[in-house]
Amino acid sequence: MRFEPGRLIVHRNVRRGRIGWVRPARVVLDDDRGLLLWVARDTPVAHEVTEAGLGMRAMPFAEWVTSSYRLARGRWNGPPLLKFLPTGAAHSVWWFRDAGDRFATWYVNLEEPGVRWDDGHLAGVDVVDQDLDVVVRPDRSWEWKDEEEFAERLAFPDHYWVPDPDAVRAEGKRVVARAEAGHFPFDGTWCDFTPPTDWTTPRELPAGWDRPPAR
Fold first, then answer.
1. Fewest 10 Å CB contacts: which of 59, 106, 145, 194?
2. Three-class SS state of 165
């Protein structure tokens, strides 16, 4: 299954069969290397919160797993974001930008390989975000991110969506080795990407954004 460049799809995170977050994105390219997506500033998004409106990071995980949930709508309030999902890989690479829309860092999001779906009127890719991440600076120095959250959640195996933390760390180390060596996609590729001028930012989440997860 391939997505046409320019098509608006939804990139979604799934937690134990529930939607964790939704981000509409334009397809930049889709080839043998993988899927490249563009999330524009002010894009409508949704994320899982408790009935009181609190996100997962706003409380201890022990409290989160006993809560009831809903999907809250909002807007992507950060700089525009480029995301690359390598074919078959247990990670994606994001290009973060600074306030001036200049490349700032690579962000390695460790996740289960995406599962694609296409309903005709809307398509998407569903991943399982494994929480532990790696930040890679332009000089290829790096650091783990969210290690404390990862450790906290692993203490609740009946509720957490990461069955093999060693595999997650091993994937991170493999990607770090590529980054340190300056291999694709850490070789400067797409650091200066500019989207086509006719790409518009959707005003609302597209119909079907909350369809059941494909995973």
1. 194
2. helix
User: Dihedrals φ, ψ of 194, to 5°?
Assistant: -130, 125
* Domain parsing of the chain, residue ranges: 8-181
Q: 48 CB contacts (<8 Å, ≥6 apart)?
A: 15, 18, 19, 20, 21, 55, 56, 69, 70, 71, 72
SS3 category, 27: strand
Is 144 in contact with 136 (CB distance < 8 Å)? no
Tokens 């991110």 belong to residue: 145
Report the DSSP pairing between strands 8-15 and 123-136: parallel
What separation, in Å, do the N-terminal and C-terminal C-alpha atoms of the chain show?
15
Which SS3 state, helix, strand or coil, does residue 58 take?
Answer: helix
**CA angle in degrees (0–180, nearest 5) for 105-84-4:** 140
Q: Taking the complete model, does pTM exceed 0.85, yes or no?
A: yes
Helices (H), 133-193: 147-154, 165-181
- Residue 210 · residue 21 · CB < 8 Å: no
Q: Which CATH superfamily is domain 8-181 in?
A: FomD-like (2.40.380.10)
